[in-house]
Amino acid sequence: MAEMEVTFELAKENGITPEEWEKIHKILGRKPTYPELGIFQAMWSEHCSYKSSKIHLKTLPTEAPWVLQGPGENAGIIDIGDGWAVAFKMESHNHPSFIEPYQGAATGVGGILRDVFTMGARPLANLNGLFFGAPDHPKTPFLMRGVVAGVGDYGNCIGVPMLGGQVTFHPCFNGNNLVNAFTLGVLRGDRIFRGKAEGVGNPVWYVGSKTGRDGIHGATMASAEFSEETEEKKPTVQVGDPFTEKLLLEACLEIMADDFVLGIQDMGAAGLTSSSLEMAERAGSGIRIDLSKIPLREKDLNPYEILLSESQERMLFVAKKGYEKEILSVFRKWNLDAVQIGEVTDTSRAEFWFGGKKVADIPIAGIGDEAPLYDRPSAEPEELSEMRKLDLSKIEDLKDPGKEFLHFIGSPHLCSRKWVFTQYDQSVRTNTVQGPYHEAGLIRLKGTTKGIAMSLDVNPRLCKLDPRLGAASAVAESALNVACAGAKPLGVTDCLNFGNPEKPGVMWEFKEAMAGMREACLKLETPVVSGNVSFYNETEGVGIYPTPSIGMVGLAEDISKTATCFFKKDGAKVLLLGKRKGTLGGSLYLSAVKGLDKGNPPELDLDYHKSLINLMISLIGDGLVESAHDVSEGGLLPALAECCLSPLSDDLGASIDLKPGQRLDELFFGESISRVVVTADPESAGEVMKSAAAAGIDAGEIGLTGGKDFSVSIEGKRIFSLKISEIRTVWENGIDKILA
Amino acid sequence: MKARIYVFLKPKVLDPQGKAIEKALSTLGFEEVKSVRAGKFFEVETGDVPPGKEEETLREYCRKLLVNAVIEDYRIEVIEK
Amino acid sequence: MRVTVVQFLGSNCDHDVIQWSKDIFRMPTEVVWYTESDLRKPDLVLLPGGFSYGDYLRPGAMASRTPAIESVIDFAKSGGLVLGICNGFQILCECGLLPGALLRNSSLHFICRDLYLKAGNKKTPFTNKIPDGKLLRVPIAHGDGNYFCDEETAKALESEGRVAFRYVSPEGKIDPEWNPNGSMSGIAGILSEKKNVLGMMPHPERASDKALGCEDGRLIFESVISHLES
User: Fold this and answer.
1) Catalytic: C203?
2) Closest Cα of chain C to B74: distance in Å?
3) Measuring CA to CA, how many Å separate A683 from each of A273, A608, A624, A679, A680?
């Protein structure tokens, strides 16, 4: 291959700014080679360097006595007692999923699984946050079918159950759908593996799929100077191979059971470049890699391509010298090729060789220390003040409440996610206590009484109207979901999806969201232990609503003392705990039915919310409530109906009687973050009310379970009554409207 | 040798994938489409095979692994001996 | 009773059936790797579910051509008990121990949900403990569970009492809504001629623990225990 002439023009095309070009010269003391330019470009990309977000991310709380590993590693880890720990992380795969929904979503799941088992944890549960455009947008069905099948096929093949998550439709995602994949794994707290290249002279190993041209940076590859075979060398869509990943998972866990692996890292974004540099950086060592030894899928890859390939299902690890035989025998058993491609050095430099020639030589500290950091300008978007104005007097109240309720609950926004969830294996590994139809996913930890609960939440509409409140509400809601399963919230992973950070409005949204997350995470004592940022979710200048997805993980000490959201038997009292009144500002009802994303979202009192969370944990732990369901998007009536719609048992109805004093739409569909519907045996209902009063939480009886109808009245006056079977039919077939 | 092997479902076996593709094509306006059956296609490259034994060898591949005779038929094509 | 579980590359319910046998029923349980021929003298061989070889080519095709399966064929031919679950059922069809094949679900989707099973014959090593009138609630989780065989085989399966389980509605009726993968005659599991080999798509090992909500799957394992004791 002819050596590429590296000029500033070429660097600029690759997204390098004049200041960065200067810095590269300062770091190297010379002009970069072409592969070096590729390394800087990748490592200083938004994706790898977090240059626009870093200063704001630093404000998030990341510590607690139970945090064993905070941000900066492949996944965060928290201690759950008795020597056990859970590793978890969430990551976006938004852009690839828009281009090729099936493979984009599948490789998203593959990547997050690797991040977790890299830490030495066995992945035991997945969640997914999927955000699509408007239900009637022409691309929505295509994207939805592809993404759901991709997520499902990958996780199903590996054998990690999908325990739920979120499926949201909104026009703001028309040009940018989001795929946020979450994985949780379990490990022993004293067997954590980290991505470190330690011990001078130790071999660096490559294992997994061969390297191809997948995902190499598009702009560069398409440049005409690069090659005459431009067409042939266009970046290819990353294709997932879950079978190889399964082998990689088992083989890696098997070698990690021994003591000769010192550090291990997934080759994710920016492939070999970022994995090798990060491993050396964390250990404060150097690394030398011979690119000629990398197993290739196509023979003619050049060093630049090998360094930047994002082929899937590949890992890099450093092992103690002298264990070559043991390592090879494990990988041979699992039909995988493992190759020694280099060694750890004490030079503090990353050297890459190819065909006996040094093609890149970079001081590792330089890349990290000199990485650009931006405090980008921010300003509140102009449209916000107008969006926050809401004049309810111009909106007609409900006229035919029963019919309008049925229409609302059968809309794609509220209907059953059965079409999605049945495509995911929910019960493999026989740990699933609560699967995707529940408030939170809940698995048991075999050999203990413990249960691990997890929930993924965000309401992009609230985050648009008030990013600070919206982000805090996402943390609050996910924590309440986990508490409604009976678990204590312990830690957060996030996936921060935003538009173009170079726009002051987007940057303002990001900063505000970080402030809101910080407040909520501090108050609820749920540190952020891992996560990722996805900027530039924009198409033709139109960005998404700010979408900071929150993955919350909690611990239930005794799995036999947990709750589900479904009504259990006739004659139980239905109680509403928490804020008495909801508001229509920013509600799903206004958005989905009236087409208005307007108003001030419901306020959030974090102290009150924390008391409610603690109350739920103690009520469930004491066995005083039979079911618990948090009232979120859609408001009170949809939440109550959902409690009647267990996928596994017969229809069980309820008679609800509410107090007057609000418009019907506000009473039925108004929203508030801090509300929970519970049921209790008539004998324990008094006890529940007393506990609530002691905790300073409002509580009121709003009905009785029983029968096969869902009846709603106000002060004894019947407003409507519907058969549960009728609601179920509409609710279960809502997604069909999109797919038809 | 270089060869191609085509594997398809027997006519009697329901092919939901083919049916779905057939429907999709007519939805796209290709009303003339009468039927689609989906199948599999393998490109095989081997070392030396005894002359005259090419087809027999390929049939062995099919019988032993590539084809499930309960539901599938196949066709072979030797491209280069 | 001695149990042997065969592990293939890509099996992912291997841990689940090992736990079923070893922890729930406290049976001595051996794990045999697919390259091994020695099954270690089992009374029951379990072929687990999952995606052996990623379901590439055809589900179960590549696993069915391994040394361990050759031994399983010999073991079954000498009357040994073999239970293949999900991918294990697909392997049993591919290796010829059971007739027919499992095609793509008619919906073309992977489906995971609880379904109801009705035993077609209570006088077999795998079903003898199922009380009369009892339907088993057991989850399925597969993309290729649409059972197909030729008419002659279908007749033989029916007349010889070899339909082990059918998908039925909660009322016990054949109902397309409760046979979501489109299996012919609602077939969920079938037996070999001598009824010592059972292949079934649903996962009884996932419905055998009170902590997870349902224990109906235990009856299948308990039937095997009772058969071997008598």
Assistant:
1) yes
2) 14
3) 64, 27, 9, 11, 8
Task: Return the H-helix or E-strand segment holding A538.
Answer: strand A538-539
Question: Domain residues for B76?
Answer: 2-80
Among A137-151, A289-303, A547-561, name the one with the lowest average pLDDT.
Answer: A289-303
C205 in active site: yes
> Minimal Cα–Cα distance from C222 to chain B, Å?
33
pLDDT tier, A614 (very low <50, low <70, confident <90, very high otherwise): very high
What does the CA dihedral A402, A408, A414, A417 come to, rounded to 10 degrees?
Answer: 80
Confidence band of A229 (pLDDT split at 50, 70, 90): very low
pLDDT in tens, A136-160: 999 999 999 999 999 999 999 999 9
pLDDT band at A228 (very low <50, low <70, confident <90, very high): very low
**pLDDT tens, residue by residue, A681-697:** 999 999 999 999 999 99
Q: What's residue A224's pLDDT?
A: 31
Task: Report ipTM (2 d.p.).
Answer: 0.97
- pLDDT for the residue numbered A220: 40
Q: Using a CB-CB distance cutoff of 8 angstroms, which residues of chain C are in contact with residue B24?
A: none
Residues A124, A32: Cα–Cα separation, whole Å: 44
Of C13, C54, C211, nearest to A242 by CB-CB distance is C54
Full strand arrangement of the beta sheet holding B2-9: B39-45, B2-9, B72-80
**Helix, strand, or coil (residue A722):** strand
Q: How many domains does chain B have?
A: 1
Domain count, chain C: 1
**Cβ–Cβ of B70/C65 closer than 8 Å?**
no
Q: How many CA atoms, within 13 angstroms, populate the side-chain half-sphere of residue A356?
A: 0
Q: Does C105 touch chain B (CB under 8 A)?
A: yes
Interfacial residues of A (vs C; Cβ cutoff 8 Å):
149, 152-153, 156-159, 241-244, 246-247, 333-335, 421-433, 444, 446, 559-560, 647-648
Chain B: residue whose CA lies nearest to C146: B14
What pLDDT does residue A235 have?
A: 55
Q: What is the CATH number of the domain that holds C30?
A: 3.40.50.880
Residues of B in contact with C94 (CB under 8 A): 68
User: Alpha-carbon distance A653 to A704, whole Å?
Assistant: 9
Cβ separation A159–C206 shorter than 8 A: no
Instruction: Give me the percent of chain A exceeding a pLDDT of 90.
Output: 84
Tokens of A7: 């000029």
- The residue annotated as part of the active site, out of C93, C95, C149, C205, is C205
Interface contact C104-B16, CB threshold 8 A: yes
Among residues A47, A170, A217, A609, the one annotated as catalytic is: A47
* Alpha carbons A308 and A542: distance in angstroms, whole number: 29
Instruction: Please give the model's pTM, rounded to 2 decimal places.
Output: 0.94
Q: What is the residue range of C179's domain?
A: 3-229
Contact yes or no for C203 and A427 at CB 8 A: yes
